[in-house]
Fold DNA mismatch repair proteins mutS family domain-containing protein.
Amino acid sequence: SFFQMNTSSSRRFPGVSRTLSSGRSAPRRGKNASRTTNTSVSASNILTPVFASIMEGRSSARGQIGLAAINLTTMDFHLFNFVDSSAYSLLKTQLQVLEPVEIIICDSINERNSNAVLHEAVRSACDQATISAVQRRYFDGARGHEMYRLLRARTDPNSKLENSTDKELCLAAFAALVKYIEHIEGFIFATSSIRITFHEDDALCVMDADTWENLRVIDRTSSARGKDRRTIFSMLSSGTLTVTGARLLRASLLQPLADEDEIAARADAVEEMLEKPHLLERSRSLLACAQSIDSILPVIVKKYREKTVVKAEHRIVQLVHLRQTLQLVEKLRQLLPNFVSPIIAVKADTLLDDRIEEIRAILDETLNIDILSLNGRKNSMDARNQKIYAIQSHLSTALDVSRRAYEELLKDLHADTRELDECMPEQNVQLAYSASRLFHYLWITHDANRVPVPPNFINVVRNKASLTFSSRHLMRFNDRIEQSVCEVMLESDDVISEAIDAIRPHVEVLYTLIDTLSTLDFICALVVYATERDTVRPSFGGSVIIKAGRYPLLDVPGKPVVPNDTYLTPSSHFALITGPNMAGKSTYTRQVGSLALLAQIGSFVPAEAASLPIFKRISSRVGQNDTLAENLSSFAAEMTGMAGILASADARTLVMVDELARSTSVEEGIGISYAVIEELIEKKCFVVFTSHFLDLATLDASYAAVENFHFAPQVRQTSDGEVLDPSHTLYRGSYSGPLYGFEVAELAALPSSMLVRARQLAQRLHEEWKTRREEEEEMMETREILRCAHAFRELLRHPRTTTTKANLLQLRARFLDVVRARNAVEIGEDED
Ligand code: ADP
Ligand code: MG
């Protein structure tokens, strides 16, 4: 065999060492999906186990990286080749999008330590994943190419890979991944059954994990902690009805489009549905019936070496499910031609594909539709019979025979009343069936608590008005019946396998159908959002021009959010924002980022008007304000983050920087800020930069690109004097007011009288500070002289010791300096 099996554990991969693993076993997210009980699609139940494989280039291909990944639920393979200088950061981002539970890498990387960079990138991107090293020989590009041709669904339009040699790396990673999955999951991939997408020059916008976090795009931590924070994803996904739609939404939010036509295609569809609400309504009622249509794919793709009853039952259920899904196609065929927007209208044609009918025909020939369409209340016996009779008769003699055996057994069981007749004559005892207890006796009687049960009956369970029990005789029957049911299932599985083999050549059409439904669901979710909020369709151009934009996550009905404009042009592309605490600086940076993000997934945006460039990159960094002990590391992290942004920033980058260098000293912070700002200006990227270093505001004098903005507090007159309220309104120009933090204190429930007093004090101090600064130089000198005089008097009071003498001499020198500087009366050196 390709691998020599390790006998100690079938889950082990020969030649695999998990030395790089973090020790914890990775959570299999897919298995937890059932925990969420609400019907809306949440972040946690769209994540399914993803496996990834990485191959690094050597010698001439050094610095290039190939990545292959598969989602074991959707059976979607994705191949990536990263070639340019940012290969590692692109790999990291892609891993963060994929969130694999396990990553396999070539074990030679493990041996020569030179590849710490890759290891570090992988570890930092997926600290939860298990990393397994696999022998180098499995990373075979030529073999990967062969597998690609063999496994991919026929008529896959994505044939870019043919005749190409520069895809070596990802094909090598693919080869190893296929073998690894087959080995540890215990199935083989059926030929011509999987969709393999090759990503090369995808026009996508790059964001990184910090930016997702800062912009609240998605909550990557809460599923572990069990609470869902509000995110842009949660805001939009409440409008999705299918898991595949939510998955598309998630992928789009993490990697928005960067191609104007693709964005316009989505926005066109959103706009159309906004204009024709009946289309939205019909689409949504249809989607509500299409819960998880992709669960059929693993059934078609996976081929197991051995049959089991559980798998057989699962396959039957899935085929029945598929049959029901295909019923949606008819409705879709009627619905989709009503759309004008190409992105949806084009899908209408895919539904005319003959292969859909062929699959339906295969299912109709195989499945016993009458039995399966049994509606209404079903007892456990009906449910079981549905499975037993799911397959039509006369398709397999063996199946028919096993079913007859089952029927005979049931007949025998019902006829065999000897036991009851002998031991419990004239009692209301009958045979009953439940899924957990199987066949048992049920005795309905008022005295269920007390009536004696003859000793040959066992497993007595007394309820209020009935009691149940069994007997050895009955249990033997149960055993035989169960055995017979298993035989029926295994025989059914042979028929199912044949049906699946027949369906497989047409599987491509199922991928298309899933795409159609998920696109429709995704667009509907955007429409739901656009309907519920006051939004506008953004246009695209060379500048960021947003009129009355609102931060989407604060923009909830009933709570007033203060709208703000944004205006950034190629010549004035740097907005420097100052203002007091709690004014809304951070919120504003998130607002600009979120609006750009929404615009690039094809969504409408919460604003009165919006025009934006299409960004290739959206990056956001937030300064940490940690405790002193952590300062150094958070500062270092901040600077590394900034360096990462600077390395790839250009005129098509949007950068949000919030309170850079907050945890360091003022001098250092200002110095670093200057340096970073100059670099950002040089790179010509669009920047929203907030800072509490008011001195930075002078930058607009030296750089035409910099424009100052500030959040000014609102002055409110109260009986206790003036109170400053944050207005959350952005003004042009730099800020010169006080830096207050009282809202924070209010949250901490300080008495309001104290706050009023504190505000007054702060204001007075601020005024004093201002007047002091305005004082004349002369005043300052006079004051210094007075200070000297005061010191003289103090010293003269003390007895003359040597120290006072020295102090006196020092003071005299200082005094002379001041006076000389003032060009006052000449005082002789010798005068004592
Ligand atoms: P800063 O970064 O200036 O300290 P934040 O952005 O953290 O301020 O905002 C402080 C508080 O003000 C937050 O609780 C936020 O909800 C609220 N806020 C900020 N901007 C707005 C706005 N435009 N409209 C309404 N509330 C806002
Ligand atoms: Mg802030």
